[in-house]
Each structure stands twice: as structure tokens, then as C-alpha cells.
Amino acid sequence: MMPPDPSQPPPGRPGRKLGPIVASAGSVHRAWLNPMRDAYFASGRTLGDLSVEVPLAKSKLSELLRGASLYPRWEIVSRLATLLGLPQVPLGRLWRQAALDAHKSREWVDRSSDNTALTTTHAAPPLDHRAFCEHVEPDYLLYAQAFIPDDHEGAVSDTFDILWLSWNDALASPDTRRYAWTVLRGTVMSRTPHIDGRPCFSQAAFDTVALTYLADAEARTRQLSETIALFQVISQLPPTQFDVIALRILWRLSTERVSELLGLAPAMVRSSQRHAEHYLKSTLYPPETDEGTTP
Predict the structure, then answer these.
(1) Architecture of 194-284 per CATH?
(2) What pTM value is reported for the model?
(3) Dihedral (CA of 280, 262, 39, 65) sign
(4) What is the pLDDT of residues 157-185, one digit of tens each?
(5) What are the sequence ranges of the domains in the chain?
(6) Gap between the Cα atoms of 24 and 27, Å rounded
(7) CA–CA distance, 197 with 209 (Å, rounded to integer)
(8) How many secondary structure helices (H) and strands (E) does the chain include?
(9) Alpha helices (H) along 166-294
(10) 58-90: pLDDT as tens digits
């Protein structure tokens, strides 16, 4: 029997099913909407139940949970979070950033939270969450910087807030490290420029790979074209191979550290690297064919 889809209410739940998040919702908006939707689905409550305790009609609650219509005030989001058992601090930080991304003024943000404290300093995440974040933060920052150098700290901070919101799910997952890496990757890639659906490395990544090792200007110019070609091919790799190669080539992390960050067995990391390197070599340096030979 197929397991139930966690993105939908359980069978027999009264009321209309909640639709998906609208395409126009920004990445940080989605970052707090997804955990809130998960908490709503897990609660077993209906929109009608919530509308009794939140001053919104069912239709407006549906719009809020889909990211539709106007960006919601913090007072409403905070009340809903309390009913669904979500921590206020990480939710509040993500709500604020998403409001600014939606071109809301800081004055609007302050007014929207006048009646509900938007505290960001007096509550602490679970101890094991804090320990995990401290352990991975340096390498998470390096990974994010390869794609979004101007916002890599914000992307990692948002990743840790998303993990705080869903920490119980992370602990209940088959591998917390893999769960966390998936959150980081999704956060970073949602803010990374793409060409033809492929992520683009930043200039910081180019500098890291080879150019900093070459003092001669002419050699740096030659290496640049080769590096561009290499990164274009790397971007075509499947996600796991892509991440393994990026971490091993860009930052020269050990197999053991990559295994730890990705939540993969060392043998899987080595296998992914072998397959990726084979693809890179066969694409960048295809075998020569004898044009005079008749098949």
C-alpha cells in the first residue's frame, strides 16, 4: 500500500483541500509557508476550526496558506503559528525578510507587528539544533558563497531558521544531515541565477577553483575559459553528483567531510565522484575518432 501523501489532508477530512502555494510566492515566503502548511496538515484541524480562533474567514485563511492575495500581517501569522505549535522566533525572522522581499516598507513591517512582539533575541532554538548549526555553518557558507556571494550569509541563516521550524521532522527523518542539506540546497538554489534551468556559479567560485593559483596574467586568461567550460558541464550533473563535485573541487573538502555534510555514506560519495568525473572527462575531452575509418 502506498503511504499517504503528507502534502494533503488525511482522507475523510471535512472541507475543501488546501491548494498548492501560488507560483508568485517568493523563496523566503515559501520558507515559512511550507512548515506552516505541514503543521496545518499534521494538526488534523480544518480551516473552519482555525477561523474560530484566528480573525480570518476560511477563504482568507486558505489564501494565507497558499501565499495568495496580500502579504499577511504578523499579528495573524503569529496567532496561527501559536495554534499550530510553531516557534515564533525563526518564523518571525523569515516573515520579516519575506515582507521586505515583497517590497513592504520597514514602516509597514513595524506597524504590522505593533500588537504582537516580533522578538528575535530572547528565545533560543533546541540545544541539538544549535550544536548542529555550529558544526556545519562554515561549510554551508562556503557552498552558498559559490552561487550567491552577496547573500550567502542570509541564505544560511534562513536555512537554519527553516530547520528550527521543522526540527522535529528533521530528527524523525532517516538522516538529519541529509534533511538539513536538502533544505540548504533548496534555499541556495532558489536564489541562484539559472540559465536553461542550470545553476550558475558566481565569480567567487571561479576565483576559488584555479585563478588564485596562477600569478601570470596570460595563464589566468587561458585558465578562465577552461574553468567556464568546466562549470558549464558541472551544472549538467544530477544534484548529488553536482554537490559532491562542487565540494570536492571548489573547496577541496575530504571525502569524509562531504559524507558528513550530505548525509551519504563515504562509498556513495566516492561513487558519485567517479561517475561525475567520468561524465566531465567524456564531455570536455571526447575521444578522437578516425575520420578515415569506414564503420
Answers:
(1) Orthogonal Bundle (1.10)
(2) 0.82
(3) negative
(4) 999 999 999 999 999 999 999 999 999 99
(5) 19-117, 124-192, 194-284
(6) 9
(7) 23
(8) 15, 2
(9) 167-172, 176-189, 203-209, 217-234, 239-245, 255-262, 266-284
(10) 999 999 999 998 999 999 999 999 999 999 999
